[in-house]
Amino acid sequence: QQQVKQSPQSLIVQKGGISIINCAYENTAFDYFPWYQQFPGKGPALLIAIRPDVSEKKEGRFTISFNKSAKQFSLHIMDSQPGDSATYFCASYLSGTYKYIFGTGTRLKVLA
Amino acid sequence: ETGVTQSPTHLIKTRGQQVTLRCSSQSGHNTVSWYQQALGQGPQFIFQYYREEENGRGNFPPRFSGLQFPNYSSELNVNALELDDSALYLCASSFRTQGTGELFFGEGSRLTVL
Question: What is the mean pLDDT of residues A21-48?
Answer without folding.
Answer: 94
